[in-house]
Write a structure and sequence with these properties.
Structural class: alpha+beta
Radius of gyration: 14 Å
Strand content: 15-25%
Number of helices: 4
Oligomer: single chain
Distance between the termini: 39 Å
Strand order of the largest sheet: 2-1-3-4
């Protein structure tokens, strides 16, 4: 098995720490038994399962907005999604899909905050990460 690329598109806007790893301002982890931020997920996953994976986390900033939009549109196109992001609809769409998690370009998680075991299982089986009930 070759190295797998895990990409996580995060909702964090420049200067906005409230969305760093949580779907709402309560930072509850969205139904998870453990409240993991995206950074904590990456750290735990890397420590435990870093054999054949590379993880990239994309946070949107004012400086990379066009690149972020282009990369997400490529993901949607490659997954045969009809959704197209542009600057006017960016905030709305990100609020509906982030964090978005892909493995080798294939979407495996939408608006879910897995723990490291759930992420590993999805990476190894190719199945989607189960959506957890929203905490808010």
């Amino acid at each position: 098995m070759g190295q797998k690329l895990i990409e996580i598109f995060n909702l964090e806007q420049a200067g906005d720490q409230s969305s760093k790893g949580s779907c709402c301002q309560s930072n509850c982890g969205c139904g998870s038994t453990q409240s993991l931020t995206i950074d904590e997920l990456v750290t735990r996953f890397t420590e435990k399962y870093n054999r054949d994976t590379e993880i990239k986390v994309y946070d949107i900033t004012n400086n990379n907005k066009k690149e972020f939009i282009d990369k997400l549109n490529t993901v949607f196109t490659n997954n045969k999604e009809k959704l197209q992001i542009s600057e006017p609809n960016l905030d709305f769409i990100l609020s509906k899909v982030c964090p978005l998690i892909t493995v080798d370009g294939r979407i495996i998680g939408v608006k879910t905050y897995p723990d490291e075991e759930e992420l590993y299982d999805a990476v190894m089986t190719g199945k989607k990460i189960p959506t957890k009930p929203n905490c808010c």
